[in-house]
């Protein structure tokens, strides 16, 4: 396990050495979650604030409607029993105190009194022709927000040319229904204009109040200014956090990209791929995956280079012997000597052919296993068939192979031909090192998790320091009585490669009973 592996609950990645590294989904937020929160928060705040302010403005206008209705009704009652002089005085007084324009119409609908005509106007509509840029921007923002929240369109407020009750729809309804009528208009500067029409007495007179509710617009704009300020602050913070996140993402990615380019250019030996052990997010996971991949690539390149060198060395020896024998043949006249040279040449040709076959087989294992379809295989049946076939071919010489099984049924997933090759190689090795007539013991065990095939011989055994070397390519230490060149030194190396391609293992150890000899343990995951 790499030193910077960490615990998690969601995502795992294999590491060099057989361990796994996991990406935490609990204690820390992933980059995806952080980026989403940072970018969505300002938009959510802005959208929610816009709808809240529109609702707030509607609530203010509704409250003002209630106030306008009450004011109109109270004023109408006060005017109903007063003299003309008192009515005019009340119109002026209420208009100044409430900031309204009050107009009274007689039973024929003619204008009887106007607070603005009786005294100085209590308010003036804003002339937008001389507005400053900030006022123009405020109106543009009002229209934009209304469009976003799909606010209802409001009729523009326009003073009718005819100063009669019939020019005001709300006065017409008030006269017909004898009830107070409230209407909302919009002045050209975006401020609401609220009119209230109420019947005065029983003789058909009516009252019209007009209020320019600039305070509602001022309140809403102040709230919007506060919201916009908050949003700008959040956006600024979001931008800073986004830049920070961008740096935390881009900087290591650039380092990884530079390292990958150097590896692609063949300079992997001088490349130190950053592992970023302090990061537990996707970038750290990627960095360690690239580092592990580079390490695996280096190991593969070293293995290829070493294999090529070993192949050249192993083939060079029989080629030199073959060349010497062939060059000597024309100069030798003695029949026995010529026969001996021919035997040497034939032996060397067979040795080269065996080497080429073994090398070709070893080089195809990874490619074949990556494309192979795994099948359910009974290892007990497979080993029994192999033992019977070897006895029929007399490949066990005079050795008796004793097979024992225990545990569950030894079912595995694998490629039958390849697993057969492993067992054949293990039996070949045991036959080579066992003394004449000494039995070879094969034990098959399934503990529910792993299927183990243990092959034990009665030979000299393998020293502990050499138990790993026997699986190296072209490592061949053979018995003295065996002819030189009968083995390529690739058998156990091929067997281990097949075992590892099946997610298993192949190791060498001493006999568990303490007797002389060696045991080769072949383990596979149980199906």
Topology:
Layout: E1 11-14, E2 20-23, H1 31-80, H2 84-98, E3 101-105, E4 111-114, H3 115-118, H4 133-148, H5 169-177, E5 181-186, E6 192-200, E7 205-212, H6 214-264, H7 282-328, H8 335-371, E8 375-378, H9 379-393, E9 401-407, E10 411-414, H10 416-433, E11 440-446, E12 450-456, H11 491-501, E13 505-510, E14 518-525
Parallel strand pairs: 9-11
Antiparallel strand pairs: 1-2, 3-4, 3-7, 5-6, 6-7, 8-10, 11-12, 12-14, 13-14
Descriptive overview:
With 527 residues, the chain is α+β, with helices and mostly antiparallel strands. It is built from eleven helices and 14 strands. The strands form four sheets. A five-stranded antiparallel beta sheet has the order 4-3-7-6-5. Helix 1 packs antiparallel against helix 6 (214-264) and helix 6 (214-264) packs parallel to helix 7.
Average pLDDT, rounded to a whole number, is: 81
Termini separation: 25 Å
Strand order of the largest sheet: 4-3-7-6-5
Q: In percent, how helical is the residue content?
A: 40-55%
Q: Care to count the β-strands? A: 14
Main location: membrane
Organism: Erythrobacter rubeus
Subcellular location: Membrane
Pfam families: HAMP (PF00672), HATPase_c (PF02518), HisKA (PF00512), Sensor_TM1 (PF13755)
Which tags fit this structure?
5-stranded mixed beta sheet, rod-shaped, alpha+beta, disordered N terminus, 527 residues, transmembrane helix, phosphoprotein, transferase, kinase, 5-stranded antiparallel beta sheet, two-component regulatory system, 11 helices
Summarize the structure.
It catalyses: ATP + protein L-histidine = ADP + protein N-phospho-L-histidine. This protein is α+β, with helices and mostly antiparallel strands and about 525 residues long. About 50% of the residues lie in helices and about 15% in strands.
